C-alpha cells in the first residue's frame, strides 16, 4: 500500500495517550498500526482498547459511524518499527516525554518512511524546534498536542516547527477534523503552547489566593467548577467578554479594562509550588478533601471521566 492512500496511521508508543489516539483514529475509519518498543506492549494496548470500546458501546458513547467490532478490525500491533510504518501517511508519536527519547525516535522513523509522510508529536511541554532537531526534513514535522482524555476532550493544539510546510499543517488540521477532534493552529511555537500557558496563569493565581489566606482549596475549585467553568465549557474568555457588555468587547474593556489592569498589576510573584510551609499546607488541605492514596484518587478519576463523558454528550447535542 502506498502512503498516498491516506488510510493508514502509525501510532508510536502505546501508553495512555497512544491508546487514546488509536481509538480516535479508528473511530474516523483509519487503519491504525500501533508500535511500542517494549515487546508485547502494543498487543496489550489492543486488549485494553477492546475493553474500553466495549464499555463505550454499551454507554452509547462510541464515536464514529462504525460499531466496535468494525473499529477494532482496523487495529493492529507491532513490535517492529519498520513494519509498523509500512503504508502510513501520518505518524503520531506518543513515547515518554523525554527530549532525547523523542529525538532518537524521530531519527529512526525518518529513516524508515517516504518523504511525504507527516511526522507528528504528542509532546505536552517540548517545542517543535527541539523535538525535531535531529530530523533532516523538518517541513513535514508538526506537534499535535492532545488533552487527556482525547476521546472526550477534543482540543488538539497544532504547533508548527519554524520550517513546517503550510500543506502539512492543513493536512493535519483536516485529519483532526475528520476524526472529530477540535484542532486549533498556533502560528508559531512558544513554550507551553496556548493551553498550558493559560492553565499556568489559572494555577498561579489560584495557588496565591489560597497561600495568602484569601480562600480555601475547596472554594477556589468551586469558583471554577460552579462559576467560570460553566461558561468556559461552551464559550471562551474572548466571547464571554464580548457578550458581557451591551455593545460587545470594546464596550466591555471601556467599562472593565481599568479594573482588570489594576488587578493584574497587583498579582504576586510566581509561588513556590513545591517547597516551604505554604506549599505543604496547601497540599495537606487538598489531601484532607481527597486523600492521595490510589483508591481515593482512582475513584475521583473515574468520576471525572464519567462527568466528562456526560459533558461531551451534551456538547455533541448543541
Ligand atoms: N498523559 C497526558 O495527560 C498527556 C496529555 C497530552 C500529551 N501527552 C504526551 O503524550 C506522550 C505520551 O504520554 P503518555 O502519558 O501516554 O505516556 P506513557 O508513559 O503512558 O506511555 C509511553 C509509552 O511509550 C513507550 N515508549 C517509550 N519509549 C519508546 C520508544 N523509543 N519507542 C516506542 N515506544 C516507546 C512506552 O513503552 C510506553 O508504552 C508524552 O509526550 C506526553 O507528554 C500526555
Ligand atoms: C457491526 O457491523 C457489521 C457490519 O454492518 C455487522 O456485520 C456486525 O454484526 C455488527 N456487529 C455488532 C456487534 O453490532
List the helices and strands and how they pair.
Layout: E1 8-12, H1 16-27, E2 31-35, H2 41-58, H3 68-72, E3 75-78, H4 81-85, E4 90-93, H5 99-112, E5 118-121, H6 128-131, E6 141-146, E7 155-160, H7 166-178, E8 182-185, H8 195-211, H9 217-232, H10 237-243, H11 249-265, H12 277-289, H13 294-316
Parallel strand pairs: 1-2, 1-4, 2-3, 4-5, 5-6, 7-8
Antiparallel strand pairs: 6-7
Helix pairs in contact: 10-11
The structure holds nicotinamide-adenine-dinucleotide and 2-acetamido-2-deoxy-beta-D-glucopyranose.
The site of 2-acetamido-2-deoxy-beta-D-glucopyranose has 3 residues, from helix 3.
Find the count of extended strands (DSSP E, 2+ residues). Answer: 8
Poorly predicted ranges (pLDDT <50, ≥5 residues)?
none
**Which strand order does the major sheet show?**
3-2-1-4-5-6-7-8
Give the N-terminus to C-terminus distance in angstroms: 39 Å
Helix/strand class: alpha/beta
Counted up, domains total 2
Helix content: 40-55%
- What is the strand content? 5-15%
What's the helix count?
13
Order of helices and strands: EHEHHEHEHEHEEHEHHHHHH
What is the mean pLDDT? 96
Radius of gyration: 22 Å
Summary of the model, kept short:
It is built from 13 helices and eight strands.
Amino acid at each position: 500500500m502506498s502512503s498516498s492512500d491516506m488510510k493508514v496511521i502509525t501510532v508510536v508508543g502505546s501508553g495512555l495517550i497512544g491508546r487514546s489516539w488509536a481509538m480516535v483514529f479508528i473511530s474516523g475509519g483509519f487503519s491504525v498500526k500501533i508500535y511500542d518498543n517494549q515487546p508485547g506492549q502494543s498487543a496489550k494496548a489492543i486488549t485494553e482498547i477492546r475493553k474500553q470500546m466495549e464499555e463505550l458501546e454499551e454507554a452509547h458513547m462510541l464515536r464514529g459511524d462504525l460499531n466496535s467490532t468494525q473499529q477494532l478490525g482496523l487495529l493492529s500491533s507491532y513490535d517492529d518499527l519498520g513494519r509498523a510504518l509500512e503504508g502510513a501517511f501520518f505518524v503520531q508519536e506518543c513515547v515518554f516525554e523525554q527530549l532525547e527519547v523523542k529525538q532518537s525516535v524521530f531519527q529512526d522513523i525518518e529513516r524508515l518512511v517516504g518523504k511525504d509522510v507527516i511526522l507528528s508529536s504528542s509532546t505536552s511541554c517540548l517545542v517543535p524546534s527541539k523535538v525535531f532537531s535531529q530530523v533532516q526534513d523538518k517541513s513535514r514535522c508538526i506537534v499535535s498536542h492532545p488533552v487527556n482524555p482525547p476521546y472526550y476532550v477534543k482540543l488538539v493544539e497544532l504547533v508548527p516547527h519554524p520550517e513546517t510546510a503550510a500543506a502539512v499543517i492543513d493536512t493535519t488540521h483536516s485529519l483532526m477534523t475528520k476524526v472529530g477532534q477540535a484542532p486549533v493552529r498556533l502560528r508559531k511555537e512558544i513554550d507551553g503552547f496556548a493551553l498550558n500557558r493559560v492553565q499556568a496563569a489559572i494555577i498561579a493565581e489560584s495557588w496565591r489566593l489560597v497561600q495568602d489566606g484569601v480562600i480555601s482549596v475547596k472554594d477556589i475549585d468551586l469558583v471554577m467548577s460552579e462559576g467560570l467553568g460553566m461558561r468556559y465549557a461552551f464559550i471562551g474568555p474572548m466571547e464571554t467578554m464580548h457578550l458581557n457588555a451591551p455593545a460587545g468587547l470594546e464596550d466591555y474593556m471601556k467599562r472593565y479594562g481599568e479594573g482588570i489592569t489594576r488587578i493584574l498589576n497587583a498579582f504576586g510573584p510566581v509561588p513556590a509550588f513545591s517547597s516551604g510551609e505554604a506549599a505543604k499546607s496547601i497540599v495537606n488541605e487538598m489531601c484532607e478533601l481527597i486523600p492521595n492514596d490510589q483508591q481515593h484518587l482512582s475513584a475521583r478519576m473515574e468520576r471525572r471521566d464519567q462527568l466528562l463523558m456526560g459533558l461531551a454528550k451534551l456538547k455533541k447535542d448543541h
